[in-house]
């Protein structure tokens, strides 16, 4: 499968999160500890919001492996952001091409995914027909991940992210079951609008891919007062990751099975996630 990182908080150089930790995303691209595959070399992508151009996130993607890409290091060492995504891909049947690399973008929205739609080859046509016709021309690649994004947009992502993702997941499960697929969906998803970030962990079989969120910074400072990175970031800084970036005691918490969280100014929220299988007609 894939590995990903989502960051929200004090503006930092991307390299401080993507390159410098002991078990950084670069290390995970070669030595994943919790993924289905140890190596994730079928492309990568980073997306970030810049303070002076917050209407649309910037996206950089490439089909090469992250571990030896000079452009990734160059960008990461010079770009500073308060909200960014990074993703390394292990393909699950679709082509290794730039348009299939995460994150995906539509307007100010950004999306990335680890997992798969089981039986996607059988389900693809039915799911694609459910996408809003006005949005369909913007689909560039052939992955289940991008199609999930556009289904969520169709089902009202800008107005109600948890509800839209629940309706998307419900449609995938209902369609999968109609085609005889017992466990249609496996997903950890991150989605952001430049101000807030949502993360979802769900699978039809109840054995979801790994996902962790970082402990509150003030708590970590008390536990590890000598850790320099913690001195320079705000109490609201959070990371959500496919697997921990290091072994700092108390730093990482597993996202509960079948749940979602919102990272936002003020209080973050975590709650149960269930697909909405009663999906009505889509918007025309």
What does this 3D model show about the protein?
This protein is α+β, with helices and mostly antiparallel strands and 284 residues long. It has one domain (3-272): Aminohydrolase, N-terminal nucleophile (Ntn) domain (Glutamine Phosphoribosylpyrophosphate, subunit 1, domain 1). The protein contains 8 helices and 13 strands. It has helices spanning 14-18, 25-31, 70-76, 120-129, 144-154, 161-178, 217-223, 228-231, and strands at residues 3-13, 44-48, 58-62, 80-88, 104-106, 109-117, 185-192, 197-203, 212-214, 238-241, 252-254, 259-263, 269-272. Strands 3-2-4-1-10-9-11 form a 7-stranded antiparallel β-sheet. It has a 6-stranded antiparallel β-sheet with strand order 5-6-7-8-12-13. Strand 12 and strand 13 (269-272) form a beta hairpin. Helix 4 (120-129) packs across helix 6. The protein starts with a strand and ends in a 12-residue tail after the last strand.
Overall form: globular
Number of strands: 13
Overall pLDDT confidence: 92
Q: N- to C-terminal separation?
A: 33 Å
Strand arrangement within the widest β-sheet reads 3-2-4-1-10-9-11
**What is the H/E string?**
EHHEEHEEEHHHEEEHHEEEE
Number of DSSP helical runs: 8
InterPro entries: EgtC-like (IPR026869), Gamma-glu_amide_hydrolase (IPR052373), GATase_2_dom (IPR017932), Ntn_hydrolases_N (IPR029055)
Keywords: Glutamine amidotransferase
Organism: Streptomyces longisporus
Pfam family, one: GATase_4
């Amino acid at each position: 499968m894939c590995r990903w990182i989502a960051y929200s908080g004090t503006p930092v150089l991307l390299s401080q999160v993507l390159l410098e930790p002991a078990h950084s995303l670069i290390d995970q691209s070669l030595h994943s500890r919790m993924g289905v595959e140890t190596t994730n070399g079928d492309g990568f992508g980073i997306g970030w919001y810049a303070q002076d151009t917050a209407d649309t996130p910037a996206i950089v993607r490439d089909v090469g492996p992250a571990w030896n890409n000079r452009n990734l290091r160059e960008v990461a060492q010079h770009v500073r952001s308060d909200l960014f995504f990074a993703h390394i891909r292990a393909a699950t049947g679709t082509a290794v091409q730039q348009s299939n690399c995460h994150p995906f973008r539509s307007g100010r929205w950004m999306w990335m995914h680890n997992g798969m739609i089981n039986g996607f080859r059988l389900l693809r046509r039915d799911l694609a027909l459910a996408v809003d016709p006005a949005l369909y021309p913007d689909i560039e690649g052939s992955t289940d991940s991008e199609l999930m994004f556009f289904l969520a947009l169709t089902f009202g992502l800008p107005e109600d992210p948890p509800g839209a993702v629940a309706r998307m997941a419900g449609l995938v499960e209902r369609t999968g079951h109609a085609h005889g697929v017992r466990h249609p969906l496996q997903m950890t998803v991150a989605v952001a609008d430049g101000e807030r970030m949502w993360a979802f962990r769900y699978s039809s079989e109840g054995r979801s891919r790994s996902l962790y969120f970082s402990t509150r910074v003030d708590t970590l400072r008390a536990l590890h007062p000598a850790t320099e990175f913690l001195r320079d970031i705000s109490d609201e800084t959070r990371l959500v990751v496919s697997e921990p970036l290091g072994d700092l005691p108390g730093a990482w918490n597993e996202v509960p099975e079948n749940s979602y969280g919102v990272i936002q100014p003020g209080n973050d929220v975590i709650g149960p996630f269930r697909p909405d299988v009663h999906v009505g007609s889509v918007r025309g």
